[in-house]
Structures are given as structure tokens and as C-alpha cells.
């Protein structure tokens, strides 16, 4: 490995004098490219990677491959500025391997904007046609509708030769028969997100097997993409759409299958003896599946019980309902990541039942689960049950909705039972008078210094539906004029010293207030760094008079000792002052007495 010249010269017999190491800036200039990339890859936060890149042009030249490996654009302005930069700077654009376009992610409006859509897809088409994104592997279009100009797909197909993963979204406007989206071949991953407009306007499109759109789409996936490894059909709606034709596909290399609110296991006739349902046969025909995500509409748990016990042996990531997981005992010993797509109703399923199910997952390391509480007392043993059943968790995403569940100080002490926990995402209903986000984050960080990143979210409670003509809102008339808190969230990063003790947390809070009478909402975001070290440390105490006043007023053993010393010093001062005053008064009395006696002696005749 290449070493800087100043390191080789130190301690060599030919060196005449001991050389001082150069400043850090010059040392970085001599580091090899592989070492810089390794350092950047170990940085978990993209902001840290950016700060590392801007230290010098030498670092930026080599580390930009890590910084620009994934580009996510969340507005039309970002699309125009960033994509134009990538088109004119091929030295940077050649590092882009994943591009995500969300034209209206930062807009606070519900209506679809055609102009923003058209402008964003035009910018993508320009940079793709210039063949600057020759290393692009993944592309995702995330909007309420498909791209306004379908020539964008043609430009991506022709200008990005390594493009193998496509993600699109379909809304109320269906793609035309001649859309270039159907022209891709040899894809390894395909994802489509069905928006609410699709469910409302075209819920039965995929049922008709002779529909032109259905035929074009399935022809591309089944015939021209035989090596498909990832397939995602995502969507969220109360009434699912039917996509039963997907169960007829066979992809030998399929490793990841994600299905949202879609119905795939509907069978129009009765089963013959020994015949299995289409989706069950589909799962058995794909033994290489490693990630399986289902919804409550995809398949009924009773049908999953008919699966061959030897199937799905490689599944390490599962998402679905707890009933579906219970019907798949063959995957319990291998699952490492688990997500419950539906909230667990504590009125119907107790926390003990869920804990008994999780106890069978001996390798579980990541868990995402949510509970719907019908009483404040439902969460009594909930957290302890999770600790006993999942001792190896490294990531926990917990949601308790509808009612207050945990107080943050008690929660921070309880999760010490997860000895390997490294990241946490907690969403709860705040107790009245409980700690704020920053104070709660400080409790969690001090009690669990092994956590590196965690997030806290406060959501409003859900009250039962009031009776007609209810006048309960008149009890507090001032609330009619004040905004109500709707949601407050914060993401925090913990920093520790070399001994593993917490130093500070860097926080970013975002709160949303809802104004009454339909006046809209107001949002506020703030960033801060909160010190977690004891206030008595000299490194964090201010100097001078302010530092002394802080030491006197602080609530710690050091502050108590200083206050006791000051009190004793005050008593000594009073005693000394008393001695001085008393002594001076006695001296004055003696002087006055001696003077009186002299006067008396003067007035007496000598003969007497």
C-alpha cells in the first residue's frame, strides 16, 4: 500500500533531524484513492460525506463516486439545476448509479401539477439523451401520474445502457398502448406504484387479460425479462385491485417480491383434488425468494398453510400480518427482518400473543411493529414482552397510536433490555405534561449510549366519535382561536467520546400546527446540538463570573458543595464581623470610662 513520504522519512537512519508531521490538509492530499473511498463509505450520514468531500479538491475528485452514487431530487427546481449540472459535468455524472425523481415531494398541495411533471421529465430526457448517465443502474419515477412525456423512457433506454431497474407510478391516467415504458428488455427489477387515482378510476384494468395495457405489460415482464430478480406492485387503498395474472409468471432468479393492496389469489372455480391455488403454486415455483412482502388483501392466512414445508427456505425478510406470519412456520428460523404491515389491535390481539410469535424468530434483528391502543393501560407489559421475545434486536421501529402509551423517561430506562439495539424509531401519543422532544431525546441518549441514531414522533390522539350536537368544544373556548399540534417529529444523532460516554446529540425537529376554521397549517423546523455531559465539567462550564454563578446554581454534588462552602464562608464572615464590632464597642467603653475617672480626679481638692 502506498504510504506518504513524510511517514517513510520519520525514523529512517538517513534523516538528519526529527521531522515534524505536516498539517492534516497536506496529509489528506497524499492519501490514496482507495483509502479515501473506504473512509467515505463508512460515513453513515450523507451530510458527513459532503463535508468530507469539500475539504479539498483532491478528496472531492475521488470521493464524489460515493457522494453521487444515489441522487434523489424532490422538486422541479432541483431537477433542473442538478440534472443540468450532471449533463455538463461528465466527471460527476459517471458516478450516478441510482436516480430518484419526485417532482412534487416538497409541495404542500394535494392537486396534481402537469407543468411540474412535464418540466421534470423533460430534464431527465435531456440528461439521458446526452449519454452522461452511462453508469445508471436504477431509475425511479415517483409522482401522482406517469411522466407527461413518455419519450423520457426512450431516452433512458437508449442513453443508459446499464439501466436494469425501473420504478414508475400510475395514477388516473393510464399509459398509452405505444408508451415506451413497455419497450425495456432484460430488466432485473421492475416496480409500479398504484396511486389513489388508479384505484378510483381504473380498479378493474388488470382483471381483463385481453386489455391492451395488461397484455403489453405482462408481455414485457414474462417474455422479455426472464431474469427478473425484483418485482414490486405497491399501492394502498381500502378496496384492492385484482392482478391475478401475475401468478402465471415464472422467474427462476426472483429474489424479492413486494405486493401491496392487490388481490392475486382469487380463483374463479373450485379446486380439483390435489390442485393448489395459483399464488401458492407461484410461491413454490420460486425457491430463491429472499424477501417477501404481502398485504392483508394478497392472500388469506388459511391458504398459506397449504404451502410445501420445504418452500420459502431462503426468506430472511418478511412483511405482512401476524396471521400470515403465523401460517408460515417454515420461515421462522431464518427471518432476520420483520415488518407488520397492519397495526395490531390490542383489543383483539394481546401483546403476549404477539410476543409468543416473535419468540419463535430466533434470528430476528430488525422489527417494525405498530399497536392500536384502546386504553392507556394496554401498554403496561407491551415493551417488556418485546424485550423478552426479541433479545437480539438491532433496529426497532415501534408505533403506539390512539392513546398515550409510554412516558419517555420510563421508556428510556426500559429499553436497556435490548443489549444490541443500535437504531430506534418511536412514534407515540404524548402524555399530557410529558417531556418535549429534545428532553425526551436526552433521556434516551443518556440511558442508551450505544444508540447511534434514533427518531421520536408525537402524533395526536384519536378520540371516539362525538354525539350529534355535542357542545364539548365550548368547555375551552380559547382553543377555537389557537392552533392545535398535529404532529411533531425529530431525528437525532448521538455522539460519544472515546470511552463510550455520550457527549451531545445533534437534533432536527419538525412540527406542524393546524389552525382552526380551515385556516391551514403552519410548519416549523429547527436544528440544534444539545450537550449531554454533566454541567460540572470544566470543559463545558463557562469561565469568569458567569461560570461561577452557573456552578453555584447547578443541581449537582459540585453545586451543593460550592453552596455549602459559600454558606460556611458567610457564617465565618458574620462571626468575624461580630468579633470586630464587639471589640470596637468594648474599646470605646473603656476609653469613655477612663476619661470620666480623669475628670473626676481633676475636680477633687488636694487637701482632701
- Output mean pLDDT: 83
Instruction: Report the count of strand segments.
Output: 20
Helices, by number, come to 20
Strand percentage lies at 15-25%
Unreliable stretches (pLDDT < 50, length at least 5) are 1-19, 464-478
Could you characterize the architecture of this molecule?
This protein has 608 residues and is of the alpha/beta class. The protein is built from 20 helices and 20 strands. It has helices at residues 5-9, 24-29, 33-42, 46-53, 57-67, 76-88, 90-93, 114-129, 151-159, 196-201, 212-222, 278-284, 301-304, 322-326, 351-359, 382-389, 408-414, 437-447, 544-553, 557-602; strands at residues 70-73, 98-101, 138-141, 165-170, 189-194, 230-235, 241-242, 256-259, 262-263, 291-293, 317-320, 337-340, 344-345, 366-372, 395-404, 423-429, 453-459, 484-496, 502-514, 521-531. The strands form 2 sheets. The chain has an 18-stranded mixed beta sheet that branches. Helix 18 (437-447) links the parallel strand 16 (423-429) and strand 17 (453-459). It is globular. The N and C termini lie far apart (121 Å). 25% of the residues are buried. Residues 1-19 and 464-478 have low confidence and may be disordered. It comes from Ephemerocybe angulata. InterPro entries: LRR_dom_sf. This is F-box domain-containing protein. The chain crosses the membrane at residues 562-581.
Amino acid at each position: 500500500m502506498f504510504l506518504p513520504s513524510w511517514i517513510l522519512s520519520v525514523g529512517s537512519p538517513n534523516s538528519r533531524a526529527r521531522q515534524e508531521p505536516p498539517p492534516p490538509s497536506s496529509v489528506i492530499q497524499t492519501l490514496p484513492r482507495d483509502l479515501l473511498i473506504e473512509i467515505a463509505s463508512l460515513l453513515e450520514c450523507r451530510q458527513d460525506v459532503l463535508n468530507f468531500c469539500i475539504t479539498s479538491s483532491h478528496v472531492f475528485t475521488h470521493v464524489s463516486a460515493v457522494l453521487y452514487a444515489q441522487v434523489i431530487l424532490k422538486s422541479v427546481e432541483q431537477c433542473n439545476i442538478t440534472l443540468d449540472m450532471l449533463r455538463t459535468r461528465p466527471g460527476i455524472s459517471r458516478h450516478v448509479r441510482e436516480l430518484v425523481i419526485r417532482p412534487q415531494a416538497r409541495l404542500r398541495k394535494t392537486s396534481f401539477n402537469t407543468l411540474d411533471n412535464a418540466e421534470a421529465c423533460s430534464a431527465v430526457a435531456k440528461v439521458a439523451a446526452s449519454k452522461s448517465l452511462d453508469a445508471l443502474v436504477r431509475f425511479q419515477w415517483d409522482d401522482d401520474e406517469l411522466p407527461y412525456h413518455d419519450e423520457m423512457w426512450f431516452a433512458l433506454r437508449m442513453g443508459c445502457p446499464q439501466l436494469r431497474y425501473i420504478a414508475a407510478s400510475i395514477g388516473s391516467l393510464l399509459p398509452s398502448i405505444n408508451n415506451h415504458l413497455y419497450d425495456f428488455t432484460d430488466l432485473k427489477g421492475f416496480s409500479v406504484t398504484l396511486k389513489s387515482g388508479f384505484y378510483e378510476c381504473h380498479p378493474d384494468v388488470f382483471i381483463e387479460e385481453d386489455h391492451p395495457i395488461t397484455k403489453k405489460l405482462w408481455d414485457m415482464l414474462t417474455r422479455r425479462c426472464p431474469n427478473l430478480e425484483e418485482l414490486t406492485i405497491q399501492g394502498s387503498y381500502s378496496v384492492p385491485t385484482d392482478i391475478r395474472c401475475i401468478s402465471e409468471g415464472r422467474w427462476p432468479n426472483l429474489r424479492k417480491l413486494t405486493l401491496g393492496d392487490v388481490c392475486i389469489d382469487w380463483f374463479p372455480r373450485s379446486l380439483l383434488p390435489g390442485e393448489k391455488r395459483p399464488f401458492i403454486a407461484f410461491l413454490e415455483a420460486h425457491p430463491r425468494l429472499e424477501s417477501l412482502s404481502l398485504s392483508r388483501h394478497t392472500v388469506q392466512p388459511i391458504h398459506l398453510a397449504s404451502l410445501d414445508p420445504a418452500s420459502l427456505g431462503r426468506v430472511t425478510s418478511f412483511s405482512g400480518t401476524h396471521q400470515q406470519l403465523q401460517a408460515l412456520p417454515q420461515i421462522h428460523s431464518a427471518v432476520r427482518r420483520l415488518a407488520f404491515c397492519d397495526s395490531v389491535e390490542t383489543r383483539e390481539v394481546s401483546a403476549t400473543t404477539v410476543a409468543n410469535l416473535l419468540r419463535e424468530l430466533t434470528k430476528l434483528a430488525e422489527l417494525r411493529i405498530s399497536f392500536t391502543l384502546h386504553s392507556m393501560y394496554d401498554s403496561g407489559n407491551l415493551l417488556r414482552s418485546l424485550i423478552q421475545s426479541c433479545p437480539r434486536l438491532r433496529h426497532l421501529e415501534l408505533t403506539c397510536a390512539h392513546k398515550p402509551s409510554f412516558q419517555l423517561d420510563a421508556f428510556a430506562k426500559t429499553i436497556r433490555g435490548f443489549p444490541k439495539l443500535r437504531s430506534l424509531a418511536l412514534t407515540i401519543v404524548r402524555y399530557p405534561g410529558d417531556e418535549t422532544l429534545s428532553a425526551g431525546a436526552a433521556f434516551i441518549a443518556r440511558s442508551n449510549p450505544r444508540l447511534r441514531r434514533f427518531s421520536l414522533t408525537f402524533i395526536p390522539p384519536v378520540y371516539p366519535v362525538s354525539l350529534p350536537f355535542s357542545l364539548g368544544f365550548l368547555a375551552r373556548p380559547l382553543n377555537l382561536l389557537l392552533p392545535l399540534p398535529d404532529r411533531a417529529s425529530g431525528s437525532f444523532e448521538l455522539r460519544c467520546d472515546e470511552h463510550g460516554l455520550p457527549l451531545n446529540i445533534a437534533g432536527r425537529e419538525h412540527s406542524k400546527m393546524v389552525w382552526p376554521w380551515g385556516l391551514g397549517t403552519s410548519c416549523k423546523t429547527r436544528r440544534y446540538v444539545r450537550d449531554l455531559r454533566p454541567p460540572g465539567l470544566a470543559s463545558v462550564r463557562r469561565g469568569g463570573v458567569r461560570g461561577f454563578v452557573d456552578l453555584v446554581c447547578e443541581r449537582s454534588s459540585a453545586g451543593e458543595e460550592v453552596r455549602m462552602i459559600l454558606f460556611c464562608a458567610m457564617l465565618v464572615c458574620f462571626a468575624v464581623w461580630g468579633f470586630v464590632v464587639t471589640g470596637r464597642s468594648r474599646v470605646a467603653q473603656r476609653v469613655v470610662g477612663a476619661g470620666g475617672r480623669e475628670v473626676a480626679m481633676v475636680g477633687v481638692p488636694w487637701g482632701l
